[in-house]
Design brief:
Layout lengths: L12 E6 L20 H14 L5 E6 L3 H8 L2 E3 L7 E4 L10 E3 L5 H18 L4 E6 L1 E3 L4 E7 L3 E5 L1 H4 L7
Parallel strand pairs: 1-2, 1-6, 2-5
Antiparallel strand pairs: 3-4, 7-8, 8-9
Length: 171
């Protein structure tokens, strides 16, 4: 089966989240968003931003990385098989659409994203329109949870399915 893009209609609400933070990994001595570490998830995030730009009813792209800071620190992000020709998805010449990109602090990423997600899902549900949610982060095998943002001191913030429910209440 060939990889393909999701079906996006003019009524689709597109919400994307890059959950990779850029704190230092003590095991490797490198930062998490480094292209030689978890930067492949950052590359995927920007590839889809490039491919889906201008489509759907609405778009919001959440990250805790200022693309200018990533470019200054790492130069470029490439997408594709490292044994074949790859495409640049983020560099000084190819930048994301600032109208749809929301850069949050690493510890504010999850609350900002969840607030927007719940609101946009309610809007889409009322209009009977689809939502395309794309999340780029590490998962937790035991609980099927996600790891989003976080600081070097605290680590990634764990998320489970209940956090995505619109009737979820903080305890």
């Amino acid at each position: 089966m060939e990889p393909s893009l999701p079906d996006v209609s003019p009524k689709t609400h597109i919400i994307r989240l890059c959950g990779v933070s850029d704190f230092n990994d003590p095991e490797t001595g490198r930062n998490a968003a480094d292209p030689s570490e978890d930067g492949w998830m950052v590359s995927d995030f920007y590839l889809f931003q490039y491919l889906l730009d201008g489509t759907g009813a609405s778009q919001a792209w959440f990250t805790c990385h200022d693309p200018e800071a990533l470019i200054a620190r790492y130069g470029e992000y490439l997408h594709g098989n490292c044994y074949r020709e790859r495409k640049v998805v983020l560099d000084m010449y190819q930048r994301p659409n600032p109208a749809t990109l929301r850069v949050e602090s690493p510890d504010g990423l999850l609350p900002s994203f969840l607030s927007y997600f719940r609101t946009e899902c309610a809007v889409a549900s009322e209009a009977k329109e689809p939502v395309l949610l794309c999340v780029f982060c590490h998962g937790e095998a035991r609980t099927y949870g996600l790891e989003i943002g976080g600081t070097e001191e605290e680590g990634p913030i764990p998320v489970d399915r209940g956090d995505f429910q619109s009737d979820h209440r903080e305890q």
